[in-house]
Amino acid sequence: EQGRHGVEQAKEFLPDLILCDIQMPELDGYEVLEALRSHPQTASIPLIFLTAKTEHQDFRRGMKLGADDYLTKPCSVTELLESISSRLKRHAVLNLRASTPPLEGVQVASGDSPRMDSLTSLPTKVILEQQLQRSLDQSSKDSIVSVLCLNIHRFHTINASFGNEVGDRVLQQVADRLRQVVESEALNGHLARLHSDQFGLILNHLTEMEVSEVAQTLLAVLTAPYLIEDREIRLQVSLGITNNLNSLSSPQTLLTQAETAQRWCQKRGASGYRFYSVSLDAMEVERRLIEMDLGKAIEQSEFQVYYQPQVDLGTGRIVGMESLLRWSHPTRGMISPGTFIPIAEELGLIVPLGEWVLRTACNHAKRWQALSLEPLRVSVNLSMRQLQQDNLLERVADILDETGFDPKLLSLELTETSVMQDVKAAIATLENLRKLGIEISIDDFGTGYSSLRYLNQLPIDSLKIDQTFVKQMEAAKGAEILSTIIEMAQKLKLHIVAEGIEDEKQLQFFRDRGCHAMQGYLYSPPIPIDEVHSLLSADRRLQLASA
Ligand code: C2E
Ligand code: MG
Ligand code: MG
């Protein structure tokens, strides 16, 4: 509540890590950090800012003063825990290098940490680390100790959609299935719940080949449907695997390696497993570099907004444009939003960045109305973080005021997953946005989780069918699934946009089924603003075969 008090406490208790707000009376967070850094005893304590100040300058200022991380509120528990754990790990490594007495944190912690997880009756991480240490001590030169880290994808959406009780039951069943595999295969292994939706497994004396087989069995068992209170729930899981062959490893290093492999595996989106390799660390470094540059990129205006036309399937004319962010990095060239947007989301930079896109798109779209016969809508992608902002409505309204852009021509695209996080809150926010006249569109439809339950409750106008479905049109049942999605959207009276249309056949398919608009390379890729002007002036139509 008060910076000065915080500094006094830090000097008295010398904590392992400090979480610090910025806006405080007497001494603000920046001054607290300066005070701590100038005092030898507190100078090296890791400090993480946790603040509502989302402006880029604030972030830069904090990092320049030597903060170890900068999180903006609201932030998720996982995010916070990840930040804390990575700073503590780093601090431990630095300390280890600086002084010889080895890591004792684990021993100390085990005294007061629970040994058993009460929900799943599995041992906790502390116990697993001890078992791992024992296995490593006992392993002779050529015996392998493997460590597996398992995580459920987007587990929070299960809690959000079905409630925490169902979430707990899922975790218990996952634990039961894990236990069964370990027992039935008579594996010499140790299981643990590492935290929330993450589990660990140590396997002794198995070759990499054998461990792969175990991983496949685990995946098959864990992805089979879960029946809970008459609901069928399916999970995606990813497994990261490492062993003690590559390095002189401590339990913590092995667990971190397994976690790293698991995180990279999860990035692919589907269930699977992956072995750790040093190149993953290199990729993490790459990611850190992008992280560091991302802050500067906003200041140095390295971002541009491209636009991809949406074409009406009745007239062949452009009816709207989707704004798509591009980052031209001074040394790395064009970086795709698929790479940097998740990072910007993690850092909280997506909020200022997203606002910049909205402002830019409104300004551009206002100008191009003069070039088109009919009013042209502009679509802007909104990230989950923006949707969770308390003042989203005011921010959007301010930008509309500032730019003088007609809200009726603005469409906001949200993914199912972001809406499903907190359905009630999302409904309220979306209703308010719609009152301003803004159109709400669900993006990447069909790739999110358990959407059908809520689809009719959500105040939405339009649905964008994800391009992965379009790509699978030719696959078995692909066309049937697409037809069903379209029929459903029609019954809900939604405007339907097909994304990722690349050829005539796909175009014809969606026209035949009464979709309203298309967006895809067949008509145009995303293009920079000056090309938009020439495209609009030319009034080029999409060639539509007569029905
Ligand atoms: P999205 O909103 O679903 O955008 C459509 C993506 O599909 C774009 O990728 C577009 O270039 C690509 N695409 C369009 N037509 C075709 C086609 O015919 N074939 C293929 N293969 N691809 C096509 P892009 O520009 O790389 O953007 C990727 C994602 O990044 C977007 O997916 C969106 O989720 C996110 N994104 C882009 N700009 C922003 C932004 O300003 N804010 C936020 N929050 N997210 C953004
Ligand atoms: Mg989109
Ligand atoms: Mg999309």
The number of strands is 19
- Determine the N-to-C terminus distance: 69 Å
Helix content: 40-55%
Q: What structural class results from the helix and strand content?
A: alpha/beta
**What molecules are bound to this protein?**
ligand C2E, magnesium ion
Q: Tally the helices.
A: 22
- Average pLDDT, rounded to a whole number, is 88
Low-confidence stretches: 99-111
Report on the biggest sheet.
8 strands, mixed, barrel
Strand residue percentage: 15-25%
Rg is 26 Å
Read across the widest sheet, the strand sequence of neighbours is: 11-12-14-15-16-17-18-19
Shape: globular
Give a written overview of the molecule.
It is a single chain. The chain is an alpha/beta fold and 547 residues long. Helix content is 48%, strand content 19%. The chain has 22 helices and 19 strands. It has an eight-stranded mixed beta barrel, surrounded by four helices. Strands 5-6-4-9-10 form a five-stranded mixed β-sheet, with helices on both faces. Strands 1-2-3 form a three-stranded parallel β-sheet, with helices on both faces. Helix 1 packs parallel to helix 2 (29-37), helix 7 (155-162) packs across helix 8 (164-184) and helix 8 runs antiparallel to helix 9 (208-223). The radius of gyration is 26 Å and the shape is globular. The termini are far apart. Mean pLDDT is 88; it is low at 99-111. The structure holds ligand C2E and magnesium ion (2 copies). The site of one magnesium ion (MG) has 5 residues, from strand 16.
